[in-house]
Amino acid sequence: MDKSGVLYTYGGNFRALKVLIASGYSGVKVDVDSKFVFGETNKSDDFRKKFPVGKVPAYETKDGKTRISESDAIAYFVADDALRGKGDADRAQVLQWILFSQTELLPAICGWLFPSLSIMPFNKDQVAKAKYETERCLTSLNEYLSTRTYLVGESVTLADISAFTTLVDLYKNLLDGETKTPFVNVNRWFDTILNQTKVQEALKKYSYQFSYCTTPVKVPVKFDPSKLKEVTGGSQQPAAKKDDKKDKKKEEKPKAAPKKEEPEPEEEMDAAEAALAEEPKSKDPLDALPKGTFNMDDFKRFYSNNDVDKSVPYFWEKFDPENYSIWIGEYNFNTELTKVFMSCNLISGMYQRLDKMRKNAFASACLFGEDNNSTISGLWVWRGQDLAFTLSPDWQVDYEVYTWKKLDPNSPETKKMVQDYFSWEGTDKEGRKFNQGKIFK
């Protein structure tokens, strides 16, 4: 069967790149039609007759008898048996890494990378979560590759091609020298795949300009539609024109008076529900304290939507030291910390269980160091001058595994600490560099 054909895509599409790499290894001749544009679903009748979903990459053989959508399916079609894996066990593992790349790695990378390219709006918490998930995936991959040259077997397979093309934009835009340092084995593997002759030929054929990131792209605070327009080539579909005549007719048509709905009879409560209903609702333990002038919600919004060089000065401009306090919490069992992603899970777990405290506090918890040599500490702000966790049973979560100290808001040490923790920079007391952070708000 002649598998040669045409690959429909847009320029710079990493998904199309995997097809070209696979065809280079198998010798299948693939022509590229890159007239399409990122973000555009082609709605022309001719294209939809061939490909009902209307998305690219899409592939059509020269004889027109075979049409395939989805890049991994296309790559599998044009690949040879060596790329697919030798034997059922290898093929299953190839499929495993393809699925890992698409369902675990890719969504995390997109959440971290796309805001930096103005392809999607910026949200500080979501980007931080995506970065954490990306590094979690890379950590798993790094451990797996510690004893392997390739993902499956002793030569390049579709597993390597799928994972490589999923990572290529990340290495190009965000993983600079310092950021990728913990992932030594992944870096070695990526460089090995990148320098394969067939991979280089595919990059050249597709005119994909790759170079390792030296300075990470700065994530913008505000979504810039003009940048998206540059990326998409101005392909955003214009809004459909309104039919004024139809609209006028609709306006002239009198609206029917809404029917009055009869109230549904209240369900009779059982004894347990009645007892709970009679119990007094728990009061916020901070309601009795003076509200002061610091608006916690206002600061959280400002911090989420602005860079640190603006949000830290804004914090000090608005902070009310008479009615609010700043605390440092240092984890008591740092010597027991092992993997970075596991340590970060400790922070996430505490945040989740403290959900009822969110409206009363803001925190930035940081992990410093690396695997088997790290510390956890966090900077907290809340109303009042006492340790807040002890004031409510709902707040007494994990706080006892930390040593807490109230900070003097007027001291230079506190000013620097706020700067470092809010901006996720600096080192811990022993000089370990910042690794990851999580915001509680």
Please characterize this protein's 3D structure.
This protein has three domains: 74 residues, Glutaredoxin; 152 residues, Up-down Bundle (Glutathione S-transferase Yfyf (Class Pi), Chain A, domain 2), CATH 1.20.1050; 145 residues, Alpha-Beta Plaits. The strands form two sheets. A five-stranded antiparallel beta sheet has the order 8-5-7-6-9, with helices on both faces. It contains 16 helices and nine strands. With 441 residues, it is an alpha+beta fold.
Question: Can I get a quick summary?
Answer:
By secondary structure, the chain is of the alpha+beta class.
Record the SSE blueprint.
Blueprint: E1 5-10, H1 14-26, E2 30-36, H2 45-50, E3 58-61, E4 67-69, H3 71-78, H4 81-84, H5 87-113, H6 124-144, H7 158-173, H8 184-194, H9 197-205, H10 225-232, H11 244-252, H12 271-278, H13 296-305, H14 308-318, E5 324-331, H15 340-353, E6 361-370, E7 373-383, E8 402-407, H16 412-423, E9 434-440
Helix pairs in contact: 1-3, 1-7, 1-9, 5-6, 5-7
